[in-house]
Amino acid sequence: MSFVNVEVGGDMNCHAARLDNAHGTALDLRGSSVRGSIFLTNGFSANGIVSLIAAKVGGYFVWHGITNPSNTKLYLNSATFGTLIDEETSWPKRGNLSIDGLVYQRISAPYDARTRIKWLSLSDDSSFLPQPFEELAATLRAMGHEEDADEVMIAKNDHKAGVIWCLFGVFDGYGYRPSWAFWWSVCFVLINTAVFYFAYRGGLIAPSDLSEMEKHPRSYPGFSALIYSLQKFVPLLDLEIAKHWRPNPTKGRRRHLFVPTYRTPTSVDSVSSLLLVPTKPEKWIDKATTVLRKHIGRLGVRESNLSITAGECVLLYLWFHVFVGWILTALWIGSFAKLIKV
Q: Is residue 169 scored above 80 in pLDDT?
């Protein structure tokens, strides 16, 4: 059935209609304009393509109660609907849905992000397209489903490549979950409180000015692992502790670092590995296991020329602590400022 570029002044009702064109388009509504609503419901069946590319529907587009939806390819690219009404049991199978450019003012249940993200994943596009995610998030937000809209935007950003970008997702949900960065910060401060406490007890953290401490032992600020961890973690925070205490890089025995090594196989080993290719498929697993064990046996460690003391380890760890503090603090402060502005 073809209704390409037609104009309908009222509704289009296809209740219980059965269309069959397995190798082509079963229902073609490309470029059509319907002032009312389109009802594809109550046992509607289409063995083939249902195309509403660039169609405009002023009312409802209802895709509900579909029979054998796995046989249908639903193309809604660049279509515009007043309200999209569907159900999960009527969705096409993965790869049979195309919704890039689809715009709708409202959407029916299910509203939860997990189910709707599953709906977006049915798209037949091989490359990632952000518009369906942005449209769904904007509609959910306009309908008052803020949390679900944020989850959709987080899922959208998860598709972006790059380790650094993924870290932003882990730490604060790309700005949509500022509380994550705050709680990550709390965890870092508490964990490193224990690290600095044991470092202090082991003499690896010492007074910055030992002579000053010896002259005025009572007035010299005492060490607090919690305050020290908090002050070093939060930028520009001054609690009069960190500047009076610091890691002592000379403390502890200097030890050489070990580096991994791998013994290069001899030419005889290489030739024998090529000659011992199994002829029977069931022996491939045994062959692979033997080769793996041989290579693991060549792994080892050796002492390098690099050396480090326990105090230097604490100093390096402190730099890492400060670096993470700058990043996480900037994330949650920036995200909270953004929320307050909104």
A: no
